[in-house]
Amino acid sequence: MNRKKQTSGRRQHANVTISDVARRASVSPMTVSRVLNGQANVRKSTHAAVTEAINELGYSPNKAARSLASAQQLRIGLLYSDPASTFLSAMLLGILEQARQSDTHIVVKECAPGFDTDAVIRKLIGDGVDGIMLAPPLCDSRQAFNTLIQHDMPTVTVGALHEEESISSVCIDDYRASYVMTQQIIALGHRRIGFIIGTGKQSSSIRRLAGFRAAMKDAAIEVAEELVVQGEYSYRSGFEAADQLLNLEQPPTAIFASNDDMAAGVIATAHRHHIDVPADLTVCGFDDTMLAQTIWPALTTIRQPIADMSRLAIELLEGDIRRRRADGPRKAQHRKLDFTLVRRQSDAPVK
Questions:
Q1: What residues are paired with 255 via a beta bridge?
Q2: Looking at residue 11, what is its pLDDT?
């Protein structure tokens, strides 16, 4: 019986976070961190309040995290959802290059649909990471944001525009990029243009669809709703969406997919239907991942500099972590990088 009570107590203490201690002592999580790391710039009364809260709650700080707090090397956690995403592969190239240059340790952690996002983040924090980077679609996760803000954790997102005051972001102007690509397709003489939407809840999907609609409206071209099909940013969803579009009584002469994975699926479906790309069907994508250059025909697409975005995100996060360690002023930064329309062999004038 006693053993059960002791085990229960240890589990309860293991779930106590630095934020819980901060609330009990009526101080900030940063102040608790300074007490734990033995820093001298803490008033005696504050130190006593924090120590009392630690004892009352039974808080046991992670030893690895405490030792890392004063070490030079930073530990950054990368949370991802879709391991098959070509966007993630491009992200990793930039992340690992920047991390190598700055001697930052990257901890990669999966948080796929169905996972307990809160638990995954708490585990990373418990393991001693200094900051967290969110890859799509987690870059739009309100639940992840709330947990990270609660723990006062330096965070940056890649691939989504938002205005969080305590979470930085790096992205491109998805709306404008989609508008420019749609203009290009229209300039080739296409009027019946299919559009495949990305994952519904992602902000990039919403902005890319809005850019497409705006360009069509400005060109005085009505968008037939049968030509706008939902996808999921995956090859399979692009394949299936294209099958739906190409089986229409009046199929489109061009299809603009919201990312390269789906555009590759469109080209595969066109081949299955014995439709020549680009002679009979123009296909355009978005992202300019490695896939865009390896499929046939090579894909006309929007290049967002994913590796550069990732490098910048690491830099922003490293700066935020160092300011946090020095108890300096912290403010989220929201940066947009330039995009480029890259023409290859998958687009052509309408017949």
A1: 194, 283
A2: 40
Q: How far is CA 78 from CA 129, 130, 134, 253, in A?
A: 10, 11, 6, 40
In which residue are the tokens 């190409």 written?
A: 246
> Would you place residue 163 in the very low, low, confident or very high pLDDT band (cuts 50, 70, 90)?
confident
Per-position DSSP letters for 247-292, written without gaps between them: TSSS--SEEEESSHHHHHHHHHHHHHTT--TTTT-EEE-SB--HHH
Q: At what angle do helices 29-36 and 44-57 cross, to 10 degrees?
A: 90
Q: Residue 172: pLDDT above 80?
A: yes
Most confident of 13-17, 69-73, 310-314: 310-314
The β-bridge partners of 239 are: none
pLDDT digits 0-9 by tens, 173-205: 999 999 999 999 999 999 999 999 999 889 999
User: In the chain, what are the domain boundaries?
Assistant: 2-61, 74-172+307-338, 174-304
Q: How many CB atoms lie within 10 A of CB 89?
A: 14
- Letter string b/e over residues 236-275, b meaning 16 or more CB atoms within 10 A of that residue's CB: ebbbbbbbbbbeeeebbbbbbbbbbbbbbbbbbbbeeeeb
Contacts of 351 (CB under 8 A, 6+ apart): 253, 279, 280
Q: If one looks up domain 174-304 in CATH, what number appears?
A: 3.40.50.2300
Q: What is the mean pLDDT of residues 118-144?
A: 92
Q: Picking from 42-56, 57-71, 118-132, which range would have the lowest pLDDT averaged per residue? A: 57-71
* CATH architecture of the domain with range 2-61: Orthogonal Bundle (1.10)
Distances (CA, A) of 167 to 73, 124, 133, 151: 22, 17, 10, 12
- Topology agreement, domain 74-172+307-338 and domain 174-304: yes
pLDDT above 90: percentage of residues in the chain: 64
**pTM summary value:** 0.78
- Domain 74-172+307-338 fold: Rossmann fold (3.40.50)
Nearest Cα to Cα of residue 45 among 27, 60, 59: 27
Q: Closest by alpha carbon to 104, among 324, 307, 319?
A: 319
Residue type for position 274:
H
